[in-house]
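Pasting as-is:
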Amino acid sequence: MSRRRTAAVLALLGAALAASAVAGLALGPVRIAPGRVLDIVLAGPSPTASPGSGRGAFHSIVWDVRMPRVLLGAVVGAGLAVTGTVLQALVRNQLADPFLLGASSGASTGAVLVIVFGAGAAQIAGGAGLPLAAFAGSMAALVAVYAMARRGGTMTTGRLILAGVAVQYILSALTSLVLVLSAHPDQIRSVLFWTLGGLGGARWDELALPAAALLLGSGLLVALARPLDLLLAGEEGARTLGLDTGRFRAAVFVLASLVIGVLVAYSGAIGFVGLMVPHAARMVVGAGHRAVLPVAALGGAVFLTLADLLARTAAAPEEIPVGVVTALVGGPFFLWMLRRSTRAEGVPG
């Protein structure tokens, strides 16, 4: 029964993702009928168009402008939701999230440092310098938050959130300092992109690395579903069942940081996707990670695709950073979760 429920949820989310992708391709400054969008997609990336038919213009809008953006949104949303699910299991805290734990901010800071002070380094290993810097920043931030929040073998919600906020403030100050010291005023817009998040710069030639990081990372994390489930039994329970919790956490932290770093290198810091979507997935299919991870991946892809659609159409012709949209939705959700968490810990609210 549980497998049938999971399969049904995955099918519904797949249909929702297809519908949101069509909406993302159809809506914008130039509106294209959904039927025309489907015809253009089915025709392939290089159709023959008669002069003056207008099909060539619509085809260019769909395939060259909107398709890479929709695909990047789906990839980043899925990756943030999956890593958020895993981080919540690793620290056994429902408020864990790549953004709240400083991983996204760390990745942004690493990318900004390379952009401002080491533009040549961004081209290392065929353009992989920027993702590598983002990964290093993400990993450093996660380790710092985890070390500060864990004392005496325990970790409370209060310490975790305070540690995450402290690291975010430090990284924000460092990013501002880098911006002040920058000798090029035109880098301000680039730095704002890393701090607020955006998908407007998506290009076909930049989709391969984030897609590979999502597929490989998600595949490995799904394969680790059983040990992730063991962590739900608590530290002692997981050790009793044969899990080396220290080594396992370290390895998965590195893997999650790598995925987050690569994604943030192409999308900037987008918050709250990894907080909200895992909770919604658990409410639907339960806590088992073999079911939660794929449901969260599809749910995150749908959510960020729709958030980006809202970001570029709500105030047209101006575009709102997608990170602002997710924060407006996720902020109230976080406050609700924090209130519920403090009540569960016995703190008066």
